[in-house]
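[job 0412] stage=fold_complex status=start
inputs:
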Amino acid sequence: GNSVTQMQGQVTLSEEEFLFINCTYSTTGYPTLFWYVQYPGEGPQLLLKVTTANNKGSSRGFEATYDKGTTSFHLQKASVQESDSAVYYCVLGDLGGSNYKLTFGKGTLLTVTP
Amino acid sequence: GGIITQTPKFLIGQEGQKLTLKCQQNFNHDTMYWYRQDSGKGLRLIYYSITENDLQKGDLSEGYDASREKKSSFSLTVTSAQKNEMAVFLCASSISGTSAETLYFGSGTRLTVL
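[job 0412] stage=fold_complex status=done
writing structure:
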């Protein structure tokens, strides 16, 4: 079956530091990959998505490249702000029997200190 | 734009009790979802509905029922609350439900069972 691995449960950074959140996935075919972000007290919201292998998605200063060779979709940001503090989920779309199932990683809690 | 409204925001129940969570969306989306969010486990799909009066089981449907009587609303019932259970239940919707679409989430119902 499909799986998504986010090894980092928590990341703590100071403002203006570089962010890297690791995400690897396992599936067959060429699914869509997503990053969702969840701010405190809110539901998750789409941060970015990439539908084509070897393409890059970007939004609000965040970037992620869909790397079919290494089955990775790492999230990066050059300079974080305190307002980026949230939980980040790497998510895999399903091209298998069901088109309706997404596979979520366990999430990475980002805390940015001023 | 649209919004997903979940009620109640907080739900406290007793062991063995039947509890109902409600969700309304004004996006006019066809597909709606219920996810369970546990700390450190990501999001897991309980039920989804492709259209009015349709119900499909997700990976975590045991112990739950769902109902989609109108396009705009989707309710979830915990058939017998488990003692010390704590989780956040998230409702979401998407235009039609293919795996490349964006999901729009509500802010959740936080369940505590005494």
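[job 0412] summary: Chain A touches chain B through 25 residues (CB under 8 Å).
[job 0412] exit 0
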